[in-house]
Amino acid sequence: MTTHTDDALELADIQRGVLSARPTPYAATYLAFRIDDRRDGRELMRRASTAVTSAADPVSPLGDTWVSVAVTCRGLEALGVPRASLETFAWEFRQGMAARAAALGDVGESGPEHWEAPLGGPGVHVVLTAVAPDPARLEAAVDRARPAYDRLSGVTAVWRQDCYALPTETEHFGYRDGVSHPAVEGSGIPGSNELEVPLKAGEFVLGYRDEIGGIQSPRPTVLGRNGSYAVFRKLHQDVAAFRRCLRDNSSGPEDEELLAAKIMGRWRSGAPLALAPQADDPALGADPHRRNTFLYESDDPAGFKTPGGCHIRRANPRDAAVAGEVRLHRMIRRGAVYGPPLPEGVLEDDGADRGLMFAFIGAHLGRQFEFVQSQWMNDGVFFGANDAQDPVTGSRDGSGDFTVPRRPLRRRLTSLPRFVVTRGGEYCFLPGLTALRWLGDLED
C-alpha cells in the first residue's frame, strides 16, 4: 500500500498495452521466456524498457504498433526481487493461474493437467506481446524487440502463439469482437459506452485511487506504481459443436440467428439486442459510437430483449440489479483469434486447434477477473438463475441449460455441451517503464 495522492496518470511511465485499444484489423504474437540466469534476465528487463512503447506516445516508431512486457511471479523470483517485496503483490498473482483452476472453473478438459506446455508451469517467467495492424508490421515489431532477448544465453524462448483479427472483427463463433471497453480517468481514451461514467484510474493502474478510494501498489513504490496485472488465457473454441447446437435448437436459419443473438446478447454483426431486439442491424453493429451505448435496467429489467444469462450481460451487467457492485468488477478485455477458421457451414470438427487468446487488464485480480469468472460466468445466483453458467464460455459438463425470457412461454435450451476449453494461461504483472529499469538494475 502506498500513500501517494497524486491522481494524474503518469502516461509516459505506463506501458501502452495497458490502456490503448488495439488497431483494427491487427495481428499479434505472444512470446514466453524462461530466465535461467539472473544476470541475463535483468539485462532483458533493461533492454525491454527501451523496446516498450508508453501510453504517452500517440504513435510508435512503427505506427499503430507496440510491444508490451509482462512478468509472472516466478519471473520476479528469477530476477531476484526480494521476498518481502513479492509478498506485497496480489495473493492470486503469487499463487498463479494453475493453482486457482478450481475457483476459475478450469476443471475436466480445462484442467491444468491438460494445458499446453509450458503454460501454467514454473518455467514461464516473461511474456512479450507484440501488436500491429498487419503481419508485416508485426514481424517488424518483433524484430525491433528481438535485441531485447537475442544473444542472452540465460534467457530461453519457450512458447509462441501467433494471433490475428479479421477485418470483420469477428471471432470463430462468428460474432464481432472487441466491442466494449471502459473509459479510464486521465487516460485520454474514450470508452465505448457514452452512458458510462469513466472509472477511476486505480481500477486498472496500480498506485492510483480506485472506485472505493483505495490505492493499491506493490512495494517498493518504484516497482509497483504505474504497473498493472494481466491475465492471459488461451481458449480453444469448438466451433462445430456450437453450430450444431444452434441448428438443433432452431426452426430455421432466421430462428438460428435470433438464438445466436440471445446467447451472446448481440447479433453477430455486433448490434446489441438492447438496441435492435427484433432484427439485426449491421449498420448499428459497425458503428463504434452507437453499438455499445445502452443500459438494461430502464427498459429491460426482466431480460426480454437481452437475457440476463447471455454472455455480454453476465460479463458486464451495466446498470442491471445484480449481486455485486458492477463498477468494482470492470476490466479491460482484449481478444485475438488463433488458428484457421472452420469453413462456413461445416458442422463436424476438423481437428484443427482454433480459438482466442484473451488478455484481461486490471489492478485487482480477485474482484475483477476472478470474481467475474467464478460468480458471473460460472454461476447464475447473481441474477437469480441458481447455478446456470454462461452459455458460451461456461465450464459445464454437458448438463447445463440456458433460458430465454419470452412471452407467453420462455424458451429453454438443455444439455448444453462445453464450447470453450482452457488450453492454458498465466497471471502476470505489467511493470511501468521505470519499474522495468529498476528490475534491470537489481543487484544480489
Automatic annotation (TrEMBL):
Disordered: annotated span: 278-311
InterPro entries, alphabetized: Dimeric_a/b-barrel, Dyp_peroxidase
GO molecular function: heme binding; metal ion binding; peroxidase activity
Cofactor: heme b
SUPFAM superfamilies, A to Z: Dimeric alpha+beta barrel (SSF54909)
CC per GO annotation: cytosol
Keywords: Iron, Metal-binding, Oxidoreductase, Peroxidase
Family note: Belongs to the DyP-type peroxidase family.
Name of this chain's protein: Peroxidase
Organism annotation: Streptomyces capoamus
